[in-house]
Amino acid sequence: MVKRVRATDRYLSAVAYIVVLGSLIFNVIFFSRGGFKDKSSDTPTEQRDSTELTEEEQVAHTFDPNTATYRDMRDAGIPKRIAVNIMRWRESGKVFRIKEDLAVCYGMTDSLYYAIEPLIVIGKEYQIEPKNYQESTKSEKPNKMRHELRVELEPFSLDTVGEHYLQLLGFSAKEASLVIRYRDMIGGYRTFEKFDECYAVDSIMAERLRPYIIFPAQEEKREPKAEAISFPIDINSADSVTLCAVRGIGPKSAHQILRYRELLGGYHSVEQISELSAVTTENFEHILPQICCDSAEIKKICINFAGLNEMKTHPYLSSRMLKQIINKRVLKGGWSTIQEMIDDDIFTSEEAMRIAPYLDFGTDSE
Q: What does each C-alpha distance from 220 to 113, 158, 213, 228 come to in angstroms?
């Protein structure tokens, strides 16, 4: 009997031990996972951090992403993670100019953007200012840096004037260059409207020169068609209309001849026009008997005193030559003849023959 009682006690003890142990294990697992959660304690916004907004959340909470606080954005229904990203982006210097800027914020989904888009209000100080593209892009005010008029105004043709004359009319050096380049690009200024379209010409300058500009149609009226052009034509004094009268010279080649003449300072030989891309070998053979060249009025470079800006535009002077001229002129003070420049390895004999007519050494022997 005693043995049965002891066996029963041991059995009950074992059962009690198992129950206690099982209860302990259950409590550890249960509470390690958070225990009972009061689901009602979570706010609706927190439960929907990455979901779309409901209609009730789209009612009154408008916000400006450039100035809104964290609470403003949370009230508008923006999940806290994205609200923080917006504030960080803003602190790094980002300015939201349009609503769509918010769509590329890190973490923003299309569905969320479409939900909050009606609530976004960009302040006027941050919006992109609309531009009136109907207005002219050219300045209506005269450039204060422009030179004053240094020549008495008289009728002139835009197709024949050079940069120097344009500067005398009041253009800066850069503007004069742009006017010439635009003329070459469009094949000449045929009308006042074409001249006014040039970016370097403001409206005040255009109106000031308008009464004095002679366009091709006006030239035809001023000069009777029956008047014959005498041949050969001097390419150092002819304008584009006269040059076009030469068989083999068209508008394009005429403008190249005038432009090259301006850069050179005048032609010393009729063969120089063969250097132009618009004058082919075949054309040159037809042109040659119809033209002549008076080199008396060539504009020369005073090689011992001329500055870099004056020399660098000449087609026959390369960068290497200019560097040599400037450096060696400082050392020796200048040259008396072209042979001295050949001896100083500034020019080869062939280069010297080309440039010699355009150099003034300040002596009788050049």
A: 68, 15, 14, 13
Tokens of 261: 């003449």
Kindly state whether residues 246 and 211 are assigned to the same domain: no
249: DSSP letter:
-
CATH number of the domain residue 114 falls in: 1.10.150
Taking the C-alpha atoms of residue 320 and residue 164, their distance in angstroms, rounded to an integer, is 26
In the numeric block, which tokens belong to residue 157? Answer: 């043709």
In 3-state terms, what secondary structure has residue 39?
helix
Residue 131 tokens read as 């531009």
Report the candidate in 106, 126, 130, 128 with the shortest Cα–Cα distance to residue 63: 126
Q: For residue 85, give its domain range.
A: 44-119
pLDDT profile of the chain (366 residues), mean per 10:
61 76 74 53 45 49 87 87 87 84 83 87 80 48 53 80 85 88 84 84 83 70 56 91 89 91 92 90 88 89 91 92 92 91 93 93 64
Instruction: With respect to residue 352, please indicate whether it lies within any of the assigned structural domains.
Output: yes
The count of structural domains within the chain is: 5
Q: For residues 271, 275, 279 and 285, what is the CA-based torsion angle, rounded to 10 degrees?
A: 30
Question: Three-state DSSP class for 242?
Answer: helix
Dist. CA 261–CA 256, nearest whole Å: 8
Give the containing element (helix H, strand E) for 214. Answer: strand 213-214
User: Do 59 and 102 fall within a single domain?
Assistant: yes
Q: Do residues 351 and 317 lie in contact, with contact meaning Cβ atoms separated by under 8 Å?
A: no
Q: Would you say how long the chain is, in residues?
A: 366
Query: Is residue 39, in this structure, part of any structural domain at all?
Result: no
**Of 248, 280, 297, which one is at a domain's C-terminal end?**
297
- Residue 291 in any domain: the answer is yes
Burial class (CB in 10 A: 0-12, 13-18, 19+), 12: exposed
248 phi/psi in degrees, rounded to 5: 110, -10
Say how far apart CA 10 and CA 1 lie, in whole Å: 15
Torsion angle defined by CA atoms of residues 199, 202, 203 and 204, in that order, rounded to the nearest 10 degrees: -160
**Nearest CA to 306 among 281, 341, 334?**
334
Domain end among 258, 276, 297: 297
Residue 337 one-letter amino acid: T
Burial state string for 142-168 with b = 16 or more CB within 10 A and e = fewer than 16: eeeebeeeeeeeeebbbbbbbbeebbb
